[in-house]
Amino acid sequence: MVGESILMDSSRVLEIVLQALRELVEYELAVILKYDGQQSLRVIKALGPLATKAFDNHAISLEDRPDLAAVIFKKRAHLFSPEETHVDTYADILDLPDQHSCLVSPLMIEDELVGLLTLDHRSCNRFNPSIVRFVETLSKLMSIALIQLDMSRNLAEQNSRLLQERNQLLLSASDVFSHLVGESTEWRRVLDSVKLVASTAVPVLLQGETGTGKEEIARAIHRLSPRARGPFVPLNCSALTATLAESELFGHEKGAFTGALALKRGRFELAHQGTLFLDEIGDLPLDLQPKLLRALQEGVIERVGGEKPVHFDVRIIAATHVNLQQAVEAGTFREDLYYR
Predict the structure, then answer these.
(1) Which residue in 134, 55, 135, 125 sits closest to 90, CA to CA?
(2) Do 122 and 226 fall into the same domain?
(3) In a domain, 172, yes or no
(4) Cα–Cα distances in Å, from 123 out to 20, 50, 159?
(5) Is residue 174 within a helix (H) or strand (E), and if so which, with residue range?
(6) Which keywords annotate this record (predicted)?
(7) Quick one: 245 and 145 in the same domain?
(8) Could you tell me where the beta strands, DSSP code E, fall in the chain?
(9) Distance between CA 24 and CA 131 in Å, rounded?
(10) Would 148 be classed as within a structural domain?
(11) Is 46 in the same domain as 135?
């Protein structure tokens, strides 16, 4: 779970850097390629008006591109002049005018190639020497982000693999499943799904009739997850009144309303670094659903009567006997919250 969070953050860093770069350098296409150590570069991020799906995982062989290999050998950013003979970097997937601006900058870590940054514009003379120097400096920072992304991906994959291997070793007769009795093929599929989803960080929705053991399944997922040492906090949404629902979820400050004699932490805070189980989420008051959606998107809540944001780290497992797709169509459940 931690590895997956780092992976997302590192990937997002590359995108933010390219977005910020466009505020200073007028490009129409910015591409970050990763070097695989075997004379090949592969696109991992493309941004700008000229970026299309064709760039996804597009690969360039340095053996076929001696002009790019020469730039990389010099370890310096290079602006191709109109008179300079070279093949367009993405000639096989993008048609650019003959007289266009093309800037490439190797991404290096201690003289070791980790990738390549390219900037293109359909107009000529868009990049001057000062821009070349700036991009060369920026490339050093991008190299670090690229290495971090690669290391984070390896860590996330290793963590997920170890968790899956651990769960495969757990038999249905273990402590986790000892109270979940059943021998049918369908029930075994349920237990297999529990093992599979437990190792991930994604939210889980359990659907089934009342009394079928959805909370017990939620507890099993929690006990098999990386958050097993954290709290498991259940909340029955069907038992919430519209007036107290927000306080139960997000907590309240002392004096926030009549009867609020002391500060109270909500279920999100109580479940920090653990699992929050929202039972019968289909019965959650409609006016509270946008606030729940905002909390899930931003990872931040505000207690009732408070002004200070409170950050939380929880995994959501929700359950309902309601057909949420039908509830969305009926207007009693928000579509954006359903897909969240």
Answers:
(1) 55
(2) no
(3) no
(4) 21, 13, 47
(5) none
(6) Activator, ATP-binding, DNA-binding, Nucleotide-binding, Transcription, Transcription regulation
(7) no
(8) 29-35, 40-47, 59-61, 78-80, 101-109, 112-121, 204-207, 232-236, 251-252, 264-265, 274-279, 300-301, 310-311, 314-320
(9) 9
(10) yes
(11) yes
Together in a domain, 137 and 218: no
Whether 148 and 55 map to the same domain: the answer is yes
Structure tokens at 143: 């190299």
Tokens 């797709």 locate to 325
Which structural domain, as residue segments, surrounds residue 295?
A: 201-339
Question: Which tokens is 128 given?
Answer: 């001057």
